[in-house]
Design goal:
112 residues, mainly beta, four-stranded antiparallel β-sheet, 9 strands
């Protein structure tokens, strides 16, 4: 599996609050065949906190993690609700197609 990464997105939120951010891609091909993932640390199918698979548009919630996919705009929006200090760290928004895994690194700071 190949991996391509983009630059780091810096995000911050406050303990108890919500944080939202946008992950985007530009692969010059149809995005309808991509699987989307959001992971803490290095991203893979096995450690995804939330994911969608080849859906044209979708809103998914898994616990405190929300993902809204808008493939026509080549973005997906992530939300983490009720932030805790333990949520601070490195995340990846990932999308995979034809054994190539693309990702955007997110550095989340959680402030008091």
């Amino acid at each position: 599996m190949c991996m391509e990464a983009s630059e780091v997105l810096e995000v911050s939120g406050h303990v108890g609050g919500n944080v939202s951010f946008q992950c985007s891609w530009n692969t010059n091909s149809s995005s309808n065949n991509y699987n989307m993932y959001f992971c803490k640390g290095v991203c893979s199918k096995k450690n995804a906190l939330i994911q969608t698979e080849r859906e044209t548009s979708a809103v998914r919630w898994r616990g405190r993690y929300g993902m809204e996919v808008g493939r026509a705009q080549e973005v997906f929006n992530m939300t983490i609700k009720s932030l805790k200090k333990a949520n601070a760290g490195r995340y990846h928004c990932g999308w995979e197609r034809n054994a190539t895994f693309f990702s955007q690194e997110i550095n989340l700071r959680v402030l008091d």
